[in-house]
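Posting this for the archive.
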Amino acid sequence: MPKVSLVIPVCNVERYLDECLDSVEAQTLEDIEVICVNDGSTDSSAEILRRHAQRDSRIRLVDKPNAGYGHTINLGISLATGEYLGILESDDFAESDMLQRLYEVAESKRLDVVRANYWLYWSSPEPRNEFVEFCQQEHCGSVFSPREYIEPFFFPPALWSMLVRRELIAKNGLRLLETPGASFQDTSFSFKIWSVAKRAMLLHEAFLHYRQDNEASSINNKSKAYYVCDEYAEVERFVRDDVSDLSLMSIAQRRKYDAYVWNLGRIAPSLRVEFARRASGEFSDAMERGWLRDAPLTKSQRRSIQVLIERPEIFVSRFNEGASPAYPAFVSKLLGRMRGGC
């Protein structure tokens, strides 16, 4: 059993793939398997993968027809054999000690999940990193239960900044949605992970360079307006049917509000009123079911949700005028690139 299985989804990333795989081959933790799943790339990505697999026996190449991000990650998970599972996006790259550091902490503390900070990375006009501190220093380094310290539920999904015990995923049957062409399919998956984890730890260090200047990234696709709704429908189904614990529903509603406001800023302005009307109906239903009663929302957030429910057009008007609907600007900026398909 390798210490870590690293799944890398690949779809038309020839510009960035060498840098990604070079960073994997340089990992100081040598006992790893690297499962590269090529999702029907039409550029030279497959050739690049073969070249790296020939020089490093730990790299395994899996070719398949294009079926989207969820299907690609799920296939990689099904093939993984490591003690811990990680995901690395093929346009990002990692520091050489990333897997060593994450694994040693996870193994020594018997963790289900270990998560670190990361850098936003731009390659042009000059290489630049910006440190992202969601894991704040005062909350790092101690083992916690996500049911008791719930803040990680509200972090961006960022599957690529964590390791998860593979047994936890297998035992609970955790998978991503596989809607063809959909985006943001790490959203419900990350919620599921935090929901079933018992022992977790945050690290203040950053190891991952999270690329911001890939124009093909799903965060730059304004046409995918409603896929985030599918993800939260799956979150609510998971809470009702799989874990049968409605205490998680209040957490889900707060996270859903964050994501919907983020999505409102991402989509074309012409789509915002229509999207807000849909959100209005969903939150109205949640209120009737009592799911908002104990949600960890501020008074301002509750007022904003009330406006969204009663007057979605007014909510959008205020949003378009630049008024923040009780929503931190830095979160709006960074909730993004919840990964999508090719």
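Residues 110 and 123 are 37 Å apart (CA to CA). Strands lie at 4-10, 32-39, 59-64, 84-87, 93-94, 113-122, 128-132, 162-165, 200-211.
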